[in-house]
Amino acid sequence: MALVEIRDVRKRFGIHEVLKGVSLDVKKGEVVCLLGPSGSGKTTLLRCINHLEAIETGTIRVDGELVGYRLAANGKLREERDRVIAARRAHIGMVFQRFNLFAHLSALDNVCEAPVQVLGRSRAVARERGNQLLAQVGLSAKVDAFPHQLSGGQQQRVAIARALAMDPKLMLFDEPTSALDPELVGEVLETMKSLAAGGMTMIVVTHETGFAREVAHRVVMLDDGAIVEEAPPAKFFNAPEQPRTRAFLSKIL
Amino acid sequence: MAIGIALGLLGALGALSRLPVVRLVVNAYLWVFRGTPVIVQIVFWYDATAELTNNRINLPALLAGVIALGVNEGAYMTEIVRAGLLSVDRGQLEAARSLGMTYPLAMRRIVIPQAIRIILPPTGNQFIGMLKATSLLFTIAVPEIYATGVNLYSTNFRYFEVLSVVSIWYLMLTSVLTFVQRRLERRFGYDRMTAGGSGDGMLRRVFGFSFGTTSGAR
In terms of CATH architecture, what is B2-207? Predict the structure, then answer.
C-alpha cells in the first residue's frame, strides 16, 4: 500500500478552482518531485497533504489515515478537531520556502521545541537528539545561534533538522531553495540528497531540475490544477509525452 | 492594569477568532468603550448602575473606579495585543502547526512570545495614560492624588505648591512604570531577535521619546 494516497482532490479559492481532481500515490521511501508553472497548484497540493489547506472533495491518506478529516456516517468528510489534526501532522515533516524558523529561539531550541512540547520528551533527550540532527545537517557550530544570525542556507538546514526531530514518516518540501541566494542552494540540496539516500519518503515542490533529475524516483508535472504527466526523471526530461510538458521544459531548461 | 491586560488578551484573541459571533462581541465592546469618554464611563459605573438596578448593585467608589478604568483599558489593550499578534509572520504559526502543535500551544509557545516585544512599548504608554487617568476618579469622590490636592488648595489657596506636589507624585509613579517597562523590554530580548534590526530600534526610540514629552508636559 502506498504511504501517501491522494484521490480525486478538489480545492478552490473563492471561484478559482486550484486543484481539479488530483490523484497521486507515493510509496514508502520514494522521492517525488512536483514540477509545474506558478499557479499550477503544486504548492497547494503539498499544503493539503498536512491539512494546512482544507480540501473540498476527495481524500488524502497518509499511512492509511485521513489527515484533517474523518468519514462521517453519511460518507461525507467532516473536519477533525484541532487536537486530532495536530496529532496527524506531528509525523509529517514540512519545510517551507521562507524557512519559518521560530525567531525567538536558538537553532537548538527550534529543533527541540516540538519534541518536548508535542511528543513529551525530556529536555535532555531532545537536546541530545537535536545536537545530533544539527550535526547531521552540518551545523554543529551553530547550535546556539539565533535565526537572524544564520544565512538562508543555514536557516533552511535548521528547518530540515527541526522537521526530522519529530521522526516523520514523510517529508514535504515547499520550494525549499527558491528563497536562497544561488551560492547557498547547493548546501540545502546536498542535505536533501543525503536524506533521500537514507530512505526518507519525500514530496518536493521545486524548480531545481538538476535535483529532480538526480534524486527523484518520479517527476510529476502539474498544470492548471491537474496532473499532466508523471514519469521517471530520465523519461520525463528526455522524452516527455505531453506537449504541455515539452513547452514547460523548453522554457526552464 | 491586570484587568486591562486580561481583557486585552481575551479581546485580541476574540477579534482574530474564526467565529463571527465572537468577533461581533469584541467589536461591540471596542465600539462602546473606546467611543465614549472615560469620565462618562466612570460616573456610569458608579451612579448609573445603582440607579438602573434600584440600588441592588451599588458599587463602592473605589471598585467602580477600578472596573471603569480596567474595562476601558481592556478596549485599548485589545487593539494593542491584536496588532502584536498580527505582526508575527503567519509562517510562524504554520510552522508550529506543521510540527503537530495545537492552536493554543502554538499561540502560547511561538506566537505570543514574539508578539510581546511589539506589544510592550505601546502597553507602557497605555499604563502611564491610565495612571494619569486615575485623576478623573475625583469625580466619584475617590481620594486619589489629584482630589487630595484639590481639597488642600481649596482651603489654603496655594495652587502652585499643591499642584507641584501633585505633579511630582504622578511623575514618580510614571517613572517607576517606565523603569519596569525598560526592564521587561530588555528581558524579552530586543537586541537578540531583531528581524528587521533598525526598524525595531526606531520604534523603541520613538516610544521612549514620547514618554518623556507626555509625562513632562502634563
Answer: Orthogonal Bundle (1.10)
The chain A residue lying nearest B93, using CA atoms, is A100
- End-to-end CA, chain A: 35
Burial A117-155 (b: 16+ CB within 10 A, else e): bbbebeeeebbebbbebbebbbbeebbebbbeebebbbb
CB within 8 Å of A25: residues ≥ 6 apart:
A2, A4, A5, A6
- Phi, psi (degrees; rounded to nearest 5) at A221: -105, 125
ipTM of the complex: 0.91
Residue A236 makes CB contacts below 8 A (sequence gap 6+) with A212, A219, A221, A229, A230, A245
Orientation of helix B112-133 relative to helix B2-15, angle to 10°: 130
Cβ of A104 within 8 Å of Cβ of B193? The answer is yes
Query: How crowded is residue B18: how many other Cβ atoms within 10 Å of its Cβ?
Result: 7
* Residue B103 half-sphere exposure toward CB, CA atoms < 13 A: 9
Burial class from Cβ neighbours inside 10 Å (0-12, 13-18, 19+) for residue B197 reads: exposed
Q: What distance in Å separates the CA atoms of residue B152 and residue B171, rounded to the nearest whole number?
A: 19
Contact A103, B195 (CB under 8 A): yes
Interface test with A, best of B89, B99, B105, B108 (most A CBs within 10 A): B99
Rg (CA), chain A: 18
Phi, psi of B108 (to 5 degrees): -70, -40
Kindly determine whether residue B110 and residue A102, on different chains, have CB atoms separated by under 8 Å.
yes
Q: Does B93 touch chain A (CB under 8 A)?
A: no
513547452: which residue's cell? A247
Task: Using an 8 Å CB-CB cutoff, list chain A residues near B105.
Answer: 86, 117-118
Q: Which amino acid is at B162?
A: V
CA distance A229 to A219: 8
- Per residue of chain B (218 residues), give pLDDT as tens: 667 677 777 777 777 777 788 888 888 988 999 999 999 998 998 888 888 888 777 888 888 888 888 888 888 888 888 999 999 999 999 999 999 999 999 999 999 999 988 888 898 888 888 888 888 888 887 888 888 888 888 888 888 999 999 999 999 989 998 998 888 888 876 555 544 333 344 444 444 443 433 333 33
Residue-wise burial string across A36-63, b where 16 or more C-beta atoms lie within 10 A, e elsewhere? bbeebbbbbbbbbbbbbbebeebbbbbb
Q: How many CA atoms lie within 13 A of A31 on its CB side?
A: 20
For A175-205, give the DSSP string. Answer: STTTTS-HHHHHHHHHHHHHHHHTT--EEEE
According to DSSP, residue A15 is labeled T
The four Cα atoms A145, A151, A157, A161 give a dihedral, to 10 degrees, of 20
